[in-house]
Design the sequence.
């Protein structure tokens, strides 16, 4: 009884973390491919329309009904607004200004607001080593974007705009992450509740898209439709339940540690497919980002 339970518990966390990391490491590049003909808000709408339908279909197969009272519907609506509307609208706009790999690097810093919000709203401990690690990572991000500002033909304004949109996305996503650690989240079945939240999020996305860009626009090409299905099914309907399931077990601070490998995967893909060129400054920045997050990962007591 000594090692079996701990090993099985570790695998129950590491396996879904590995799947989520691989999927989300590739989504930054796929999102980039959706920018162009279709306004970003409509692309986000289609993504979570697909995801919500798949989630509720899966819930039906599992014979899990949507059993939400007024409080549950309110929870799902706020989750849909923060996680599946604001977060992704900001991300899509950020990728219109900077490379997808760099967006992923900044997004990895969600570790800090997750830890802070977890401390404030869930009473989880905030370790000193975690703060040191995130501080080192922030220095690395600064180096990355100093380099990007120097070479960007549009000037530093584009880089700063991309940073701004990414930070807004981080705040939205982090708030939604902390919501998953509350008693309210545990009071309702995850799969159907997430399905409802995704469909509500798609509704918010569609309303925003219609007001700001006009009626729906679709690009009837195989690459665009395949990207939408990939983002809707794999990156949303599969990845989010896995991620939130682990988050409910280990807390939002530790859950954000999955972001350590995401920017590595994303920047490698950006190098292969977007022509991202590494320099000494960029390499040092990336090393500090990953090194800082690893320091935070090794913190002994980041949460209660």
Sequence:
């Amino acid at each position: 009884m000594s090692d079996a339970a701990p090993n099985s518990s570790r695998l129950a966390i590491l396996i879904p973390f590995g799947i989520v990391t691989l999927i989300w490491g590739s989504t930054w590049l796929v999102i980039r491919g959706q920018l162009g003909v279709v306004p970003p808000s409509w692309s986000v709408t289609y993504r979570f329309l697909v995801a919500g339908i798949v989630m509720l279909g899966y819930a039906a197969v599992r014979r899990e009904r949507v059993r939400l009272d007024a409080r549950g519907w309110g929870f799902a609506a706020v989750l849909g607004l923060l996680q599946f509307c604001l977060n992704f609208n900001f991300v899509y706009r950020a990728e219109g200004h900077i490379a997808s790999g760099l967006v992923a690097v900044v997004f990895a810093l969600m570790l800090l607001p997750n830890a802070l919000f977890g401390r404030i709203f869930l009473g989880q401990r905030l370790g000193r080593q975690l703060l040191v690690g995130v501080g080192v990572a922030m220095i690395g991000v600064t180096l990355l974007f100093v380099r990007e500002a120097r070479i960007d033909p549009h000037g530093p304004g584009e880089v700063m705009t991309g940073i701004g949109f990414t930070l807004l996305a981080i705040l939205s996503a982090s708030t939604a992450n902390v919501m998953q650690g509350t008693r309210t989240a545990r009071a309702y079945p995850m799969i159907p509740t997430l399905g409802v939240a995704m469909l509500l999020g798609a509704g918010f996305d569609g309303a925003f898209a219609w007001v700001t860009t006009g009626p729906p626009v679709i690009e009837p090409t195989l690459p665009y439709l395949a990207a939408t299905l990939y983002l809707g099914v794999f990156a949303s309907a599969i990845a989010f339940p896995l991620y939130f399931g682990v988050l409910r077990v280990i807390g939002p601070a530790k859950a954000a540690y999955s972001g350590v490998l995401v920017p590595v995967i994303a920047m490698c893909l950006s190098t292969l497919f977007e022509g991202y060129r590494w320099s000494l400054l960029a390499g040092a920045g990336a090393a500090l980002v990953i090194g800082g997050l690893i320091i935070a990962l090794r913190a002994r007591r980041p949460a209660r």
Remarks:
- The CA atoms of residues 42 and 209 lie 6 Å apart.
- Confidence is low (pLDDT under 50) at residues 1-5.
- The chain has 13 helices and no strands.
- Residues 4-34 form the longest helix (31 residues).
